[in-house]
Amino acid sequence: MAKIGLGLMRINNLTSNQVYDLITACLKLGIDFFDLADIYGRGKCEELVGAVLKEHPDLRDKMYIQSKVGIAYKTCGYDNSYDYIISACMESLKRLNTNYLDSLLIHRPDIFLDGDEVFAAVKYLKDMGYIKDFGLSNFNTSEIEYLKSRNIDIKYNQISLGLGNTLMLDQVMYTNVPTGKVDYADSDLFFYMKKNNIYIQAWSPFIYGFFEGSIFDEKKYPLINQVLEKYADIYHTSKCAIASAFILKLDKNLILLTGSTNIDHIKECVDGLNIYLSKEDWYRIYQECGHLLP
Question: What pTM does this model have?
Answer without folding.
Answer: 0.96
